[in-house]
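Design request, tokens follow.
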């Protein structure tokens, strides 16, 4: 992979630039107002860093494996995975780990640390531990959503529209903290397409603004979607029309 170094570090460069632009955008907004939806500049910066960290974990460990699932379903290449003595989803998930995206992880932690310094808060070690526990849970939720959306191609001809929907929703929830969603939008982005939870809840935890009920509900959402992703994948396999059928 290091033969083409520019390609190797491409994801880090592109995503790093994207989050830097978002930081500049939020700084421009906060130069005119003191808070957005009750969130300060520090909370918004932690939010961006948290979403960047989740994105970095995804890009490094499982995104480039999961993203190829629709193509393998369409071409029949999935047959090859089903004949091997290993869980096919496990192999698909981790067969394309991308170390070129790993530098995004310390970059994201740096953004989070900068937001914490802006917030000028005092949090206990237990709070930081709970924050990183929920980073792990939200990374699992992010993975669950990617698997669910890429299992739909078992039943349709093209997944292009599904991937466009995913990109649009992620882009929205990357720019709009979940605390700003109200009514049906909160239901949609917390419980149906739960991208609004992913960065918002960890930020509320680290800034001591999350209720115990919301923390428990968020954990329950992760468990529910993990079970749904596993069930939907097995259901899709039952309806897979292999290249030999």
């Amino acid at each position: 992979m290091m033969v083409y170094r520019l390609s190797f570090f491409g994801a880090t460069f592109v995503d790093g630039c994207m989050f830097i632009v978002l930081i500049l955008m939020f700084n421009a907004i906060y130069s005119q107002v003191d808070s957005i939806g009750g969130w300060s500049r520090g909370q918004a910066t932690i939010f961006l860093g948290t979403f960047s960290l989740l994105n970095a974990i995804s890009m490094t460990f499982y995104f480039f494996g999961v993203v190829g699932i629709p193509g393998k379903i369409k071409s029949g290449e999935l047959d090859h995975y089903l004949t091997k003595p290993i869980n096919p989803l496990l192999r698909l998930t981790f067969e394309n780990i991308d170390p070129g995206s790993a530098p995004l992880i310390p970059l994201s932690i740096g953004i989070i640390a900068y937001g914490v310094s802006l917030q000028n808060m005092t949090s206990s070690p237990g709070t930081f531990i709970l924050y990183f526990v929920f980073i792990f849970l939200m990374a699992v939720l992010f993975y669950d959503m990617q698997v669910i959306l890429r299992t739909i191609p078992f039943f349709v001809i093209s997944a292009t529209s599904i991937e466009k929907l995913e990109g649009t929703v992620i882009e929205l929830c990357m720019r709009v903290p979940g605390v700003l969603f109200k009514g049906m939008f909160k239901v949609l982005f917390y419980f149906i397409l739960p991208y609004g939870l992913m960065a918002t809840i960890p930020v509320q935890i680290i800034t001591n603004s999350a209720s115990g009920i919301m923390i428990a509900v968020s954990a329950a959402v992760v468990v529910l979607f993990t079970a749904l992703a596993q069930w939907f994948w097995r259901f899709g396999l039952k309806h897979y029309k292999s290249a030999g059928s």
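Comment from the thread starter after seeing the answer: thanks! The first helix runs from residue 5 to 8.
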